[in-house]
Amino acid sequence: MNRTKLTQLIKQKSAEEGFQFCGVAKAEFLEDEAPKLENWLNQGMHGEMAYMANHFDKRLDPTKLVEGAKTVISLLYNYYPEKDLNEGKEVKIAKYAFGKDYHYIIKPKLKTVLQAITEQVGEVDARVFVDSAPVHERAWAAKAGLGWVGKNSLLINRSMGSFFFLAEIILDVELDYDGPIKDYCGTCSACMDACPTDAIPAPYVVDGSKCISYLTIELKNEIPKAFEGQMEGWAFGCDICQDVCPWNRFSKPHQEKDFAPNGKLGEMKRVDWDEMTEELFREIFKGSAVKRTKFSGLKRNLDFLKKK
């Protein structure tokens, strides 16, 4: 099968597996990203996320993840919910965590796409990724023309905003490559203006150590006192910079049944959160990404929200 036909087959198979977009980029060292990443790390904007610095080379060079890599396939998977369970609530969790953990939903789909490739070209050297290794996801998705990296550092797609997961297949097969698109943020600064912790100090720069998502998930120690009264009810993750982004008016509800939330989640009131037991935590968040923070971590976050 020639390169063009194989590329078309991959995009068709990706759509069949539920991915909204699939783009293809040449696997090469991310020269433009290297100084940006180095500067970001030097300023300590990764906070306690040591893994961001540990695999610097792998994050920039796909051949260090897959020997002889020639192509990075980037895919988008929508998670925008039909109903925003955070609306009018005192306690909020990021929309991506409403349903089951995305890792377990998306990875088998990637493997199915990869299987379709091997059926056509035989054995290939390849790996699939869903936020699970040092892959510079947004940079690859932007190179593949799936959108542009916005001022909030998230990938934005013109027809579906930014409420989606990114996934990749890195392989040693040449395909027809897509090209990047232009940046459509313009003069808009909605995300920067709305961030209550000033985690976006300049366009396209996010200080991870101040981001509510980092503070409520990645940070294992106590949340610094300086953020008291600034969390705006977020107990796990944060969607503020996405909720205010004008491009997210194009978001459409996902069709993934496994992303449907536990029925009790939408009924939770502030008092229910405060009185939550470990048993209820396990029931509501069974198979959910919220389990990353553990019951003790969620309780820490909920207690911090009480501080004004």
TrEMBL record:
HAMAP family for the chain: QueG (MF_00916)
- Its top-level enzyme class, in one word, is oxidoreductase
Please identify the protein, giving its name as recorded. Epoxyqueuosine reductase
Residues in 4Fe-4S ferredoxin-type domain copies: 173-205
Quote the catalytic residue positions: 131
- In its keyword annotation, does this UniProt entry include Cytoplasm? yes
| Chemical reaction(s) catalysed | epoxyqueuosine(34) in tRNA + AH2 = queuosine(34) in tRNA + A + H2O
Pfam families found in the cross-reference section: Fer4_16, QueG_DUF1730
**Family stated for the protein in its record:** Belongs to the QueG family.
Q: Where, in this chain's numbering, is cob(II)alamin bound? A: 59, 131, 152, 155, 166, 213, 238-239
Swiss-Prot/TrEMBL keywords: 4Fe-4S, Cobalamin, Cobalt, Cytoplasm, Iron, Iron-sulfur, Metal-binding, Oxidoreductase, Queuosine biosynthesis, tRNA processing
What's the subunit arrangement here? Monomer.
Q: Which organism is it from?
A: Reichenbachiella carrageenanivorans
* Cofactor annotation remark: Binds 2 [4Fe-4S] clusters per monomer.
Q: Which molecular-function annotation in GO is an example for this chain?
A: epoxyqueuosine reductase activity
- Which compartments does it reside in? Cytoplasm
Q: Which gene encodes it?
A: queG
Gene3D superfamilies assigned: 3.30.70.20
Recite the lineage of the species: Bacteria, Pseudomonadati, Bacteroidota, Cytophagia, Cytophagales
Task: Report the EC number(s), separated by commas if there are several.
Answer: 1.17.99.6
Looking up NCBIfam families in the UniProt record yields: tRNA epoxyqueuosine(34) reductase QueG
